[in-house]
């Protein structure tokens, strides 16, 4: 997927600076905000008629709407002074947010007007793209009542995966097929898409084989013993044009207003398998009520239902039915405390549940096994639990103006498993990505029950930061046996105990502040200033050098807080989403036009920026 950065280069949106609407200003005023809606994909930017234009005062209540005329013109009169957002929408077109350089992506830039002013703006809008096709079975016959998913490359945790559109956009584009198996997804913003189908048809029946047909057609006296029954058939998620391998999915590139037709997704039966086994505790006793998960060994897709979960019965048994071919990881977690209540008597093991429905628990026993399913049942698996790994060490504090807590047991210290968190975000992981440590009054800590993974530490306590977040304590160093880990997570191997870990906190952190102005020297409000490290290996969600973007105020001032010593790029963007801040492709696109700065330990750097 090609990412178009929201880098600010040439912007003309802040016309007159003014504050937001107060309660007394919501009455009629004397200002006028007018303009035209134009087609950005047509020669000469022709007008866009009959477009719904919405004016938002930014207070959550004062919204007004009008429809553009045949020349694309619109006007809002009797406005009090304020800063207004504008959107333009029409069925089949991509909603335009005034001032946003990416079609269909908020937020836009607010237009500031003063009392008695008349402000004219132009809102470009683009016709939505279309992906059309049909879903058929292996024989080419249409499959009705299916619902194709629209996927894009997204950053999940610190990994790029195929994922569904952002939640607020899913319902805008995805639609079911008709009785001919045909679908038409319209109004799409320009971009690169993938189509996936998770067949909504019953599975679990056996396929009839040729041997069974021949046996059935023979006279009873000659038929003999019946042949072996055919394999159980089912469906797996299929990606356009007809593969169950996400890495082999073919991307569909859609330009502004482009129509991509003839996208046929062919869905075939696959031979599914039954997977069963027994989980035992370290002493050989059945692991009653243990949580078992079955998920792709290497997650590639972030969609709901990507993993399965069940619990063992009173005999420690588990069962997964109708498992498609694939490379899987079977994981088990349990507590060393007395066994949990098993499923009710008579309940068959293997009743899969959604992972999000499972309660969180302290699980200090662990086991896992990688298995490959190729259509044959896998029975009698044995999984023996063992004590999970631990991390132990001490908290240290280096303060120049602040004192650490007198009793360090008040510190809430957590270790997050990066791979498990990414898997949980895909719907394919356990709910134990977060592990709480026990901290003694003198700062000694220990966290147990850790499966193999790469862990990052976070800490909080009452009074850790000031109300504005600019003063306080920050985690500045992570050391193991005296060696600085830098930005690298703590690597925990199976049944390994990582000791002599020092988590160092300091009350001095780097800050960059300044004022953002436009080409005419006016304060530029409602933009974002993003700082990110020069070293690309730190472009990750697990890095401590990726602070939150700072939004400029109405006076154009900004302040980025939380910068450990080092070199950074500084860029101005109109928007930055949670998936963008550590996305290597997004940051690489910003780099050529960003400025380079160097932050000393605990220093505050002044850097005024100007939009070109």
Question: What do these coordinates show?
Answer:
The protein is mainly beta and 612 residues long. It has five domains: 23-127, Immunoglobulins (Immunoglobulin-like), CATH 2.60.40; 130-199 and 235-268, Carboxypeptidase-like, regulatory domain (Immunoglobulin-like), CATH 2.60.40; 272-386, Immunoglobulin-like (Sandwich), CATH 2.60.40.10; 389-506, Sandwich (Immunoglobulin-like); 510-610, Carboxypeptidase-like, regulatory domain (Immunoglobulin-like). The chain is 5% helix and 42% strand. It contains four helices and 46 strands. Strands 11, 12, 14, 16, 17 and 22 form a six-stranded mixed beta sheet that branches. The protein has a six-stranded mixed beta sheet with strand order 32-33-29-38-35-36, with no helix packed on it. Residues 1-26 and 345-360 have low confidence and may be disordered.
| Number of helical stretches of at least 4 residues | 4
Level-2 CATH architecture of the largest domain: Sandwich
Structural class: mainly beta
Major pleated sheet: 6 strands, mixed
The CATH superfamily of the largest domain appears as Carboxypeptidase-like, regulatory domain
How many domains comprise the coordinates?
A: 5
Strand content: 35-45%
General form? flat
Total strands: 46
- The N- and C-terminal alpha carbons lie at a distance of 28 Å
Poorly predicted tracts of residues: 1-26, 345-360
Average residue pLDDT? 82
Q: What is the CATH C level class of the largest domain, in words?
A: Mainly Beta
Q: Supply Rg.
A: 29 Å
């Amino acid at each position: 997927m090609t990412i178009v950065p929201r880098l600010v280069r040439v912007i003309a949106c802040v016309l007159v600076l003014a504050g937001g609407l107060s309660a007394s200003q919501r009455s009629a005023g004397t200002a006028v905000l007018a303009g035209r809606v134009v087609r950005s994909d047509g020669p000469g930017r022709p007008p866009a008629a009959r477009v719904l234009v919405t004016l938002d005062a930014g207070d959550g209540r004062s919204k007004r709407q009008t429809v553009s005329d045949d020349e694309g013109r619109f006007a809002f009169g009797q406005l009090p002074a304020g800063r207004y957002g504008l959107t333009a929408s029409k069925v089949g077109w991509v909603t335009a947010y005034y001032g946003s350089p990416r079609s269909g992506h908020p937020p836009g830039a607010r237009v500031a007007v003063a009392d008695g002013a008349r402000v004219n703006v132009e809102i470009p809008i683009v016709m939505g793209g279309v992906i059309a096709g049909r879903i058929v079975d292996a024989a080419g016959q249409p499959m009705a009542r299916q619902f194709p998913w629209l996927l894009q490359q997204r950053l999940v945790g610190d990994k790029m995966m195929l994922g569904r559109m952002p939640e607020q956009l899913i319902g805008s584009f995805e639609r079911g097929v008709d009785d001919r198996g045909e679908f038409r997804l319209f109004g799409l913003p320009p971009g690169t898409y993938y189509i996936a189908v998770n067949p909504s048809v019953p599975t679990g029946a056996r396929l009839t084989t040729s041997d069974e047909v021949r046996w059935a057609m023979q006279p009873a006296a000659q038929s003999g013993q019946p042949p072996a029954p055919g394999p159980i058939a089912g469906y797996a998620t299929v990606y356009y044009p007809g593969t169950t391998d996400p890495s082999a999915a073919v991307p569909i590139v859609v330009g502004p207003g482009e129509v991509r037709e003839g996208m046929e997704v062919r869905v075939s039966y696959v031979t599914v398998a039954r997977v069963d086994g027994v989980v035992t505790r370290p002493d050989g006793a059945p692991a009653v009520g243990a949580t078992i998960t079955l998920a792709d060994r290497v997650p590639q897709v972030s969609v709901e239902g990507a993993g399965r979960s069940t619990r063992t019965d009173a005999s420690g048994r588990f069962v997964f039915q109708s498992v498609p071919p694939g490379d899987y990881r079977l994981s088990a977690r349990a507590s060393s405390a007395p066994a949990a209540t098993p499923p009710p008597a008579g309940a068959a093991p293997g009743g899969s549940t959604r992972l999000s429905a499972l309660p969180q628990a302290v699980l200090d026993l662990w086991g896992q096994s990688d298995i490959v399913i190729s259509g044959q049942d896998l029975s009698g698996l044995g999984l023996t639990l063992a004590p999970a790994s631990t991390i132990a060490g001490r908290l240290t504090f280096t303060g120049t103006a602040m004192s650490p807590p007198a009793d360090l047991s008040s510190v809430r210290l957590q270790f997050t498993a990066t791979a498990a968190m990414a898997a949980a975000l895909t719907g394919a992981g356990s709910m134990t990505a977060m592990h709480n440590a026990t901290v003694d009054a003198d700062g000694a800590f220990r966290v147990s029950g850790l499966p193999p993974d790469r862990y990052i530490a976070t800490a909080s306590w009452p009074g850790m930061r000031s109300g504005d977040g600019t003063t306080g304590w920050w985690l500045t160093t992570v050391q193991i046996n005296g060696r600085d880990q830098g930005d690298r997570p703590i690597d925990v191997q199976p049944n390994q105990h990582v000791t002599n870990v020092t988590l160092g906190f300091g009350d001095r952190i780097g800050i960059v502040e300044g004022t953002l102005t436009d080409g005419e020297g006016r304060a530029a409000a409602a933009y974002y200033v993003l700082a990110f490290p020069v070293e690309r290996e730190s472009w990750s969600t697990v890095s401590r050098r990726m602070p939150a973007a700072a939004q400029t105020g109405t006076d154009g001032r900004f302040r980025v807080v939380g910068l450990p010593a080092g070199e950074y790029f500084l860029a101005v963007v109109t928007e930055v989403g949670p998936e963008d801040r550590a996305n290597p492709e997004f940051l690489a696109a910003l780099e050529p036009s960003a400025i380079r700065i160097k932050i000393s330990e605990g220093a505050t750097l002044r850097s005024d920026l100007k939009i070109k």
